[in-house]
Design a protein that fits this description.
It contains eleven helices and 15 strands. The structure holds NADP nicotinamide-adenine-dinucleotide phosphate.
Length: 347
């Protein structure tokens, strides 16, 4: 730690404001580094819909004083005495679940906690400390701002389509909306040679999705029966993979639009939590539901290899300065974005 200057460092914490929270910027303590930890100077962070749910206090009442956000990328500036894998100067990003390194998901990964949730401090800070086995090297072709977009949204899309779904070239994929998870899923699936149908409330966003490689597009406002449209687009066969991001208002249509033997990747809550749809039709389609919770360090590394191989760059809608973190949250809430919203620490 000798020679590392972090005394003017700061972080944001969640401060109770009636029934929700607001952001408060406060000075940070000089971090203490354990033998297996690294100190990271954060270059940028990105926002996810989850961060908005936490700020709005959707179910979590125990985050008062917590540092929010799960996604960041930065540079290692100090290492603990027993750290083997990393050197000062390495460009890294922390994994959403610090304890899920590899193998199958275990409930203990969730109970131990995710960055920026009730149990673990997040990354909306100028400096963060991480265990050496809970971070990944970021792809060489990406800036810190681009890499900060990856940890939650891109790993989730990768885990769903490639790890659980074993996506093959020529298969069809339906993606709901044009937010962070959605656009990573589009870019990854298109690079794999899959045929992507994407839905949006905006024709302008759909045109941009087409330019990113979408095969077909549906405006879900103009065509609320988008499931029937998707069935027609696939010649009545249905879609092989559906990224279920909407929840209660989209789930029944996702089941209707699914192909025999297809996969519903159950990920999102954009229209709320529950109620349970009628799952009976899935039996007659011999279909799968894959519950997805972000992913492991191994998933993140596999994603990064694929991004490097295909030279894929995250779609960043807008960058906000570190001092404007609250404005970044307001912009996320407005749902005007196409892709990711980034907070830039180093100008
Ligand atoms: N299970 C997990 O591990 C996991 C991980 C990451 C995210 N998630 C969840 O996945 C969802 C997406 O997260 P995100 O961070 O990518 O969100 P986001 O970037 O905030 O995406 C917002 C976009 O979703 C679209 N949308 C909203 N309502 C929709 C509807 N009824 N039908 C279709 N699209 C709709 C809109 O796109 P248009 O403007 O184009 O209409 C909106 O702009 C959230 O519910 C989040 O909590 C879960």
């Amino acid at each position: 730690m000798q020679g590392v200057q972090t005394q003017h460092s700061s972080h944001y914490q969640l401060q109770r404001n009636n029934n929700t929270f607001q952001l408060q910027q406060v000075p940070s303590q000089q971090p203490a580094l354990a033998a297996d930890q690294v100190l990271i100077r954060v270059g940028a962070m990105s926002l996810n819909y989850r961060d908005l749910l936490i700020l709005r206090n959707a179910g979590q009442d125990t985050v008062d004083g917590q540092i929010p956000l799960s996604d960041a990328a930065g540079t290692v500036i100090a290492i603990g005495s027993k750290v083997q894998r990393w050197q000062v100067g390495d460009r890294v990003a922390p994994n959403f679940f610090p304890q899920w390194q590899d193998g199958k998901y275990q409930t203990q990964h969730y109970s131990h906690g995710a960055l920026g949730g009730a149990n673990l401090a997040g990354v909306l800070a100028e400096h963060i400390v991480a265990s050496e086995d809970a971070i990944v090297a970021i792809p060489a072709h990406l800036s810190l701002q681009e890499a900060a977009a990856l940890p939650c949204a891109a790993v989730t899309a990768w885990h769903a389509l490639f790890e659980r779904g074993q996506l093959q070239a020529g298969e069809t994929v339906l993606i709901q909306g044009t937010g962070g998870v959605a656009l990573f899923a589009l870019q990854l699936a298109a690079a794999q040679g899959a045929k992507v149908i994407i839905t949006s409330s905006s024709d302008e966003k759909l045109a941009r999705a087409k330019a990113l490689g979408a095969w077909e597009t549906i405006n879900y406002r103009a065509q609320p029966n988008w499931d029937e449209v998707a069935l027609a687009l696939t010649g009545g066969m249905g879609v092989d993979h559906i990224l279920e991001l909407g929840g209660p208002e989209t789930y029944a249509r996702s089941i209707n639009a699914l192909a025999s033997g297809g996969h519903i990747h159950q990920i999102g809550v954009l229209t709320g939590f529950g109620p349970t749809p009628n799952l009976w039709p899935l039996q007659f389609k011999n279909a799968h539901i894959n519950g997805i919770l972000v992913g492991s360090v191994a998933h993140f590394n596999a994603l990064n290899a694929f991004l490097s191989q295909h030279q894929i760059r995250p779609v960043i809608d807008q960058e906000f300065a570190y001092a404007q973190a609250s404005e970044a949250f307001d912009y996320l809430a407005s749902a005007q974005h196409f892709g990711k919203i980034v907070i830039n620490v180093q100008a």
